[in-house]
Amino acid sequence: MSVDSRNSPTRPAASYSDRLELELEGSIETDSGRRPGVIAGGILLAVAVVLTAMNLRPAITSIGPLLAEMRADFGASALWASVLTTLPGLCFAGAGLAAPLLSRRFGIGAAIASALAVLTAGLVLRVVDGPLVVLGGTLVATAGIALVNVLIPVVIKDSFPARVGLMTGIYTAALQGGGALGSSVSPPMEGVLGGWRPALGSWAVLAAVALVTWLIAARGTGRVTRTTDAAAGGRSLMRSRLAWIVTLFFGLQSFIAYIVMGWLPQVYLDAGVSKGEAGLLLGLMSLIAVPISLIIPPIAARQGSQSRWIVGLGLFGLAGMFGLLLAPAASPLLWSVLIGIGMSVFSLALTVIALRARTGADTARLSGMAQGFGYLLAAVGPFAFGLLHDATGGWTVSLVLLIVVMVVQMAFGALAGRRRFV
């Protein structure tokens, strides 16, 4: 782990702008042809980032509301449905680990464009045939999403170095908004378009728009379309203690999010909450993350440490978890709001990935490691939560597991938020 020698006590205190310039020095030194700040045409690139982010969840969240119709159409088993809903997490892990290699091989602009093309093709493929093709198309689509998940933080780090927090917040808000859009719009689209196939396939249009916008925005911009030769030497972060701390922080918050998205409605249903209300409460959690993602990351990124923000959001989530454990039906709206605030730490997890690396190349490696291993850990969450429920016949032990994991996540988040570099 590298040591930041510029924090020496013999050095006079620097202004924020000076500290920012010094923090970005490693990135500038690896490519003397680059200028700090936003690239020319940065507004269009920002739009491309937002459109891309909006495509990173609908492919997944659009399935849930239409799953019953899909199973009825195919006569598919519960095992098929379980595989379909488990694929994204596993694919995020595998494809995420490959993203840094692909960006070094082909350039980050080409890698993201290819990933969006793969996503578009997968969204079309999965609605043209039977249950195996749906699984294959979903695998293809989520592979494209996984690559973009890892690489967009690199674009933010390289192209918006003075606005890492702001752009990460906007990106995360668009991502959360896209997820809410996928789950809420797909059912009415099924009625308007005449079936689940056109309803799911129509999301390919949004992906194609993002692809075209990305190609226009990234064309001729060296900072986006290539990585530096000096930084692409393949330095591994596997022996970096800080990299593993960031990875565990990201993985544990994803572990919690996957459980909440997969099981919270059932917990509420068993507590006597109606099906419609349970669905609305889950959607509320995603919507809460949107304004928080726009406000907190820019503020936190301007500070030397993000630890207090991470722990603060975690305390809200912890309060909601205890409420869910002790009296789930007493105030489900309050518990959902508190848990939603706690889950908003996702935006800070992405911000930390960008802030804990000096260069775009190291950001790619850290992002690939954190999201690759992190989503692999997250995939275990829903399985373990459900297994404990089946073994005990209730939700108490499962919710205690969730509380313990959240406390551990806060601890690793506090360590990850301190101003250091991999």
Quickly give the CATH architecture of the largest domain. Up-down Bundle
Q: What structural category do the secondary elements indicate?
A: mainly alpha
Rg over CA atoms: 21 Å
Strand content bin? under 5%
| Whole-number mean pLDDT | 82
Quick one: CATH class of the largest domain? Mainly Alpha
Mind explaining what this structure looks like?
- This protein is an all-alpha fold and 422 residues long.
- The protein has 2 domains: 35-227, Up-down Bundle (Growth Hormone, Chain: A); 238-422, Growth Hormone, Chain: A (Up-down Bundle), CATH 1.20.1250.
- The protein is 77% helix and 0% strand.
- The chain has helices at residues 16-23, 25-29, 42-54, 58-61, 67-74, 78-106, 108-125, 131-159, 164-193, 196-201, 203-218, 222-225, 241-270, 275-301, 307-326, 332-343, 345-355, 360-392, 396-416.
- The longest helix is centred in the C-terminal third of the chain and has 33 residues, at 360-392.
- The model is unreliable at 1-41 and 225-233 (pLDDT under 50).
